[in-house]
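forwarding from the other thread:

> can someone predict this with iron/sulfur cluster?

sure thing
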Amino acid sequence: MWLAHPCYDPEAHFQIGRIHLPVAPTCNIRCGYCVRSVGALENRPGITQEVIRPSKALSRLKQALTLEPRIQIAAVAGPGDPLANEATFETFALVKEYFPGLTKCLSTNGLLLADKLPLLKELGVNYLTVTLNAVNPEIGERIYTRVMWKGHVYHGLEGARILLERQMEGIYQASRMGFFVKVNTVFIPGINSDHVVEIAREMRDAGAHIMNIMPLIPLGIFSGLPSPAPNEISRVRAQCLPIINQWYLCKQCRADAAGVPGEEPGREVQQEACPYPY
Ligand code: SF4
Ligand code: SF4
């Protein structure tokens, strides 16, 4: 039985708060669109005012709960990959000890997911968001320029193959272990835009529960690409909906976002009502 979560349940999106605790600066891959920044004012993933330690995350959480009692979700969402940072696990252990009633959730690129699932289970994390942008390594190699795996750095097709294999294993195992799994796919014009329906099929077959197709924010090596038009995103979501449930309300939040997401200004491109109650 799933608890209400503002990023998985459309009604909860406007009623329940979440806090992203920015304890995870390191990442183990390199996505072409990634530009992380500490101290920037932009409103997008990879941005935080500061990176904090687990002890400070706990005091920030305490303060946030006083200011916004509707916060029910404690999450780690960067600014790097939460699973590549020990501080993520230390933070969840503290949250579990001091705020056992909160729901715990994290986002990841999935490289380390299968390895970390038993620990996440033990820590009481039950919602996972995995960003997966290709199920074909030949497309993946155009998106991921570097993959750090077991102490080695891989580039090109080899890196993309390793990442995909670990992502699929992680999603498959997570769904079978009882985690709620959302897949984020960044819609990258001309790179994976004709591939998203295939991703949806593979994600359904792997056991993911819902898919969140997000428009590319053109940055990094993709800074020359166009921002997808809202109707392109709507069209691909409509194509994927018969395959796997779709999430329509993502705000592409900062790594230190806090509050009720449905009440925050964001870069929401769609205001469609979600047809499925989760
Ligand atoms: Fe950046 Fe996230 Fe990609 Fe890592 S997984 S490179 S933090 S976008
Ligand atoms: Fe929710 Fe999207 Fe913000 Fe994550 S990034 S908290 S899914 S609205």
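Residues 7, 18, 250-253, 257, 261 surround iron/sulfur cluster (ligand 2) (CB under 6 Å). thats all i got for now
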